[in-house]
Specification:
Length: 153
């Protein structure tokens, strides 16, 4: 990566932080679109395309991590159930069924708590996704206007 690419990378992260701040500050305002649009009009199309790429890459990365977390929870619960079944089959002790039931209930409670935490995480992710999607739409509109303007010349 040469010096100019590093500068573009740094500039685009600064621009995204500005856009996120504008979004958060004006989320309930009717002028949110106009403020984002005015901010984005200051940039050249290649810079806007870089912003689009970063927003889309962020979404892809976070979707992959969400999928990994849910897969890990499912694998843990399946392994716990298998462990309990084999414990019942191979132990032959009288109190094993009671212990297994208690262990299963404990695991289910832990998974329920994990699900609540995961649900809160997903709720926050939905808000970030809506923010990014909104900014992407504004970027598309600015790019469409720039393309229309350049084709009229």
């Amino acid at each position: 990566m040469n010096l100019s690419e590093k500068a573009i990378e740094r500039d685009s992260s600064i621009v995204l932080k500005k856009l996120f701040a504008i979004y958060e500050k004006n989320i309930d305002s009717s002028g949110l679109y106009d403020k984002l649009y005015c901010q984005l009009q200051q940039y050249k199309p290649f810079q806007l395309n870089k912003l689009k790429t970063e927003l889309l890459a962020e979404e892809a990365t976070k979707n992959a991590s969400t999928l990994a977390m849910s897969s890990a929870a499912m694998i843990i619960s399946i392994m716990t159930i298998i462990f309990n079944v084999f414990t019942n089959i191979f132990s032959g002790k009288e109190g094993v069924i009671t212990e297994t039931v208690v262990l299963t209930i404990g695991v289910l409670v832990l998974l329920w708590k994990f699900g609540n935490i995961f649900g809160d995480f997903i709720g926050k992710r939905k808000n970030i996704w809506k923010r990014n999607k909104y900014i992407l739409c504004v970027i598309e509109n600015v790019l469409n206007e720039a393309n229309t303007y350049s084709s009229l010349r």
